[in-house]
Amino acid sequence: MKKAFSFLGMAILGGALTLGGYKMLFNDQVVIERAVQNPIETVPTNYNPNFKSTGSVEMSTDFTVAADKTVHAVVHVKNTAIRTQTNQLDLFFGRGNGQRQYEQVGTGSGVIISEDGYIVTNNHVIDGASALEITLNNKKKYKAELIGRDAANDIALLKIDAGIDLPYVAFANSDNIKIGEWVLAVGNPYNLTSTVTAGIISAKGRDLEGNRNIESFIQTDAAVNPGNSGGALVNSRGELIGINTAISSKTGSFIGYSFAVPSNIAKKIIDDILEFGTVQEAVLGIRFLPAEDDKVEGVRIADVEKNQGASNAGLQKDDIIVKINSVKISKFSELRGQLTAKRPGESVAITVVRDGDLLVKNVTLTKKIKAITVTALGWELKELSKEEKKLRKINSGIKIVKDTKYGLSNYIITKINDKEVDNAKETAALLNKLYNPKYSNNIIELINLEGERERIRF
């Protein structure tokens, strides 16, 4: 027994010596952390949370509900155009008049936006059509009627009579979408019906270089190919946020980015077509310049037109527009996109920076007067007001409000071939008639920006 206690004592003593030696040699504390501190929460794969507002962050990437809502409301659009071809050999050998007609077929997509058969698509999908045919997702075909179109924003409205209530996609407010938000593109690329692709919103208010008409696209990386034009861009709830319109490509196929007309613009154009037959374009009554101050993003006002919404509300030259209603404005394309989605007569809250201070002005938008253009010279003309004539000390004259070729913007035309001019439409018609690219036989008298008189030959 004594021997046993002796061994136990030696063991305890040895352990104490070992522990003491270890602490002397390795005095640093050793800590072991768990890779996962809390258990991972698991949810069913078909979990679909309800959000209280469109601004909520959506964690689900399950697009089955959105795809099911959309795919039955996106249609195939067939455009049949009758073309005429001239065969010089037939003329030479005396066989007929040398002309023959043939059918040219184009295809694209469209989106049903009402249960009674209204369909929105791109203008370029139906341009020049002699006949339009719509094929639904269930393969049923219907003849379509063109209700109206707007070439400037590349939107067209069609109508079919199916005799039944059709599935349709509801419009969402495209101002509420966020960069990085998941989206679906639904269409018929390469005649492959009911194709769904997914991506995220890459940019908003995107202006494409060289495109003078549409300058406020939604940019996404969802795959869009020829045939997708006119199809739906929807959010994860299956609501329409854009009409797929263009791709950025050197090959004609998708290589990374696609562009859509925002739903707010498309809806406004459709409402105008249904109510007025044409698009009612709203303007502030000002001209714009990019903001030159790097510290301030926005659009600088270059000039304010008299007796227009902006001047009546107290906006001034050199004010920098930074917000329309609650929407931030950092560049001209965003401003234009907001105005395109508004109607004449609507009131908007314009936030501007003036001398470092933020001011909010309520502006009533006015209807844009159709420009009077001289196509041959690239000029846009406008008649002078009484005040302008008095200031210039002239009795007549026409203002060149825009010049895309010769740099004569804001010059005043006083005479053409020694004849005074005072009517913009008549002046434009005369210049278009007289213009000859081979001969310079006509004289235009003008007043330049310094008030000096000049003569040019064209």
List the helices and strands and how they pair.
Blueprint: H1 2-25, H2 64-71, E1 74-86, H3 88-93, E2 99-112, E3 118-121, H4 123-126, E4 131-135, E5 141-143, E6 145-150, E7 155-159, E8 182-187, E9 195-206, E10 217-220, E11 232-234, E12 240-247, E13 258-262, H5 263-276, E14 282-283, E15 286-290, E16 299-304, H6 309-313, E17 320-324, E18 327-328, H7 332-340, E19 347-354, E20 357-364, E21 366-367, E22 372-374, E23 379-383, H8 386-392, E24 398-403, E25 412-416, E26 419-420, H9 424-434, E27 443-447, E28 453-457
Antiparallel strand pairs: 1-2, 1-4, 2-3, 3-7, 4-5, 6-7, 8-9, 8-11, 9-10, 10-13, 11-12, 12-13, 14-21, 15-16, 16-17, 17-18, 17-19, 19-20, 22-23, 23-24, 24-25, 25-26, 25-27, 27-28
Overview of the structural elements:
The structure is a single chain. The protein has 458 residues and is an alpha+beta fold. It has four domains: 77 residues, Thrombin, subunit H (Beta Barrel); 103 residues, Thrombin, subunit H; 86 residues, PDZ domain (Pdz3 Domain, Roll); 86 residues, Pdz3 Domain (Roll). The protein is 19% helix and 34% strand. The chain has nine helices and 28 strands. It has a seven-stranded antiparallel beta sheet. Strands 22, 23, 24, 25, 26, 27 and 28 form a seven-stranded antiparallel beta sheet that branches. The longest helix has 24 residues. The protein is globular. The N and C termini lie far apart (129 Å). About 9% of the residues have low confidence.
